[in-house]
Task: inverse folding
């Protein structure tokens, strides 16, 4: 029994030098293949057709025919000469910057607050944040609609009662600016939990001895924050900021539903909505594809920092 | 009271204020859903429903297509989660346990795809799915959601697998197990909580998704629950806020329940990669 087993292992060891090694080298590829296959099929082909579409006239007629008409770079030319595109791009950049800035600053402040409060209240706030985190965006939009409605929205009531001013039957959706400002409150509210909880987790990595040593040396608290705390939480802040930029730049659901399709105009377009209206609603898929490509290129350029950092993490471990 | 505890009390008050402001919209939704129409339409709001009623929930449930669309959402979500977990787990094992040529490229693919804004892909996905007659079918939506769920799941599961001490796996192999045996007996049970957390997160993102469902599904009976909710108001002039808030509550319940179950693990999974680097 024992010798028989011995000879077979010797045999298979010889074989394993050839087939075994090839087999073992193939294992990771076999494991990765299904994901690559699915992603390639569902994403690769559409991205290829995105490029093709952008070079074609492709409307409803062509959609039924399943065949576009090649028109070269005409779609790109028409988009880049459209002042609406440039205004929308600028508006989206400002909008995203405001949303990201508010989210990150408020989020970091609340995380710093969490460190200072007693455990029971910290648990309470964390539970509340998780509850907010789990609200579906469409639900949040409907709640915002109700809270900010003209007739008897509770926001107007509270602001009036707090003597901020007379907000009785104040309409929050009269100008593009106030419409987008309401969208901002909605987005920041929804994004805060993720930022607060992640920054709080990072804050727990700050070495306590360093903070105490600095306190004994008589350092002011904002100096301690800048010189001791910031360097530790910086990587997390960077990742959160780049993620937020990408999310807020491509946002669609909240502005589209909160402003309401009927009130969407070229004056309050954001990139996602511009593309949806021009490409899908007007069934000008070629032009929509050109806008998509321009948007994807901008996003890709912005995400380089984030992707490079994540790759380094993937390489290390 | 000395200075330090006065400070603490001040911070605590601020903490409670943050809690109240954050949670208020959720509270307001639930509170409104149970109020009578008189209370809802009054100019001066009442904070709690004094005579709670289930009428608005009944109205919401009897709206056309509610049950059909809940069923659609469930089908889409369960199929997406099922397929995504199996495929993503295999890829996550490859990423965390093997070094191979093309690994870096694969990581770029996984991270990069997550960066693509959904809005940027609606046009080509709509046109391609129309070409294959998969517009207005759940299959089309399932395929699209998979591209969203897969990269995220691969990355999170990778984090969970890396969290398992290598010694455990090596000990199993020394005991004479094959690599596969070690994998099945040691790795799988240890990573099970990670699988649960990741699948629930995929559940939540698919359940909440709006734009692709809006573009790809046209018939009322074929839509998902988020699209149903977005059309709830319709075009009527007099808004039925009570029913809208009841419907919103119903849409949010599955997500809230699942999220509360896993939030601890997910916060870990999302930050693990960041902190580790």
Result:
């Amino acid at each position: 029994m024992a010798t028989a087993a011995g000879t077979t292992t010797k045999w298979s060891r010889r074989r394993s030098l050839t087939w075994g090694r090839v087999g073992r080298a193939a294992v990771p590829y076999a494991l990765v293949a299904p994901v690559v296959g699915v992603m390639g099929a569902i994403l690769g082909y559409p991205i290829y057709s995105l490029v093709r579409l952008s070079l074609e006239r492709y409307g409803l007629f062509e959609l039924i025919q399943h065949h576009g008409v090649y028109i070269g770079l005409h779609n790109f030319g028409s988009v880049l000469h459209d002042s609406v595109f440039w205004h929308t791009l600028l508006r989206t950049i400002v909008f995203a910057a405001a949303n990201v800035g508010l989210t990150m600053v408020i989020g970091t402040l609340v995380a710093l607050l969490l460190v200072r409060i007693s455990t029971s209240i910290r648990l309470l706030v964390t539970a509340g944040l998780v509850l907010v985190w789990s609200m579906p965006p469409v639900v949040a939009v409907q709640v915002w609609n109700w809270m900010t409605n003209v007739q008897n929205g509770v926001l107007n009531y509270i602001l009036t009662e707090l003597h901020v001013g007379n907000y009785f039957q104040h309409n929050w959706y009269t100008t593009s600016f106030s419409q987008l400002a309401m969208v901002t409150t909605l987005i920041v509210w929804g994004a805060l939990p993720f930022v607060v909880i992640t920054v709080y987790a990072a804050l727990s990595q700050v070495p306590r001895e360093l903070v105490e040593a600095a306190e004994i040396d008589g350092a002011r608290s904002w100096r301690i924050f800048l010189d001791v705390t910031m360097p530790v939480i910086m990587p997390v802040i960077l990742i959160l900021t780049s993620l937020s930029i990408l999310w807020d730049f491509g946002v669609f659901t909240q502005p589209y539903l909160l402003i309401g399709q009927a009130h969407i105009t070229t004056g309050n377009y954001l990139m996602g909505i511009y593309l949806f209206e021009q490409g899908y609603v007007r069934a000008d898929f070629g032009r929509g594809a050109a806008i998509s490509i321009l948007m994807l290129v901008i996003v890709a350029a912005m995400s380089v920092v984030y992707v490079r950092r994540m790759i380094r993490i993937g390489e290390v471990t | 009271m000395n200075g330090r505890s006065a400070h603490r009390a001040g911070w605590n008050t601020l903490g409670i204020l943050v809690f109240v402001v954050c949670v208020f919209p959720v509270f307001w939704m639930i509170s409104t859903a149970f109020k009578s129409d008189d209370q809802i339409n009054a100019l001066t709001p009442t904070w709690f429903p004094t005579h709670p009623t289930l009428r608005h929930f009944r109205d919401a449930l009897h709206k056309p297509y509610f049950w059909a669309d809940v069923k659609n959402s469930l089908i889409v979500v369960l199929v997406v989660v099922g397929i995504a977990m199996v495929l993503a787990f295999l890829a996550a094992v490859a990423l965390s346990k093997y070094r191979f040529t093309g690994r870096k490229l694969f990581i770029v693919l996984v991270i990069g795809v997550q960066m693509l804004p959904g809005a940027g892909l609606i046009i080509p996905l709509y046109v391609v799915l129309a070409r294959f007659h998969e517009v207005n079918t759940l299959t089309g939506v399932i395929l699209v959601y998979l591209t969203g769920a897969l990269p995220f799941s691969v990355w999170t599961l990778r984090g969970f697998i890396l969290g398992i001490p290598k010694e455990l796996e090596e000990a199993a192999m020394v005991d004479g197990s094959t690599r596969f045996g070690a994998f099945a007996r040691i790795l799988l049970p240890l990573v099970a909580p990670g699988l649960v957390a990741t699948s629930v997160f995929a559940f939540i993102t698919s359940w909440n998704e709006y734009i692709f469902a809006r573009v790809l599904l046209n018939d009322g009976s074929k839509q998902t629950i988020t699209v149903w909710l977005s059309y709830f108001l319709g075009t009527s002039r007099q808004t039925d806020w009570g029913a809208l808030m009841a419907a919103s509550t119903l849409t949010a319940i599955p997500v809230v329940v699942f999220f509360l179950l896993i939030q601890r693990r997910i916060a870990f999974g999302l930050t693990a990669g960041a902190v580790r680097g």
User: Anything to note?
Assistant: Residues 84 and 197 of chain B are 13 Å apart (CA to CA). The first helix of chain B runs from residue 3 to 33. Residues 269-277 of chain B have pLDDT under 50 and may be disordered. The radius of gyration of chain B is 24 Å.
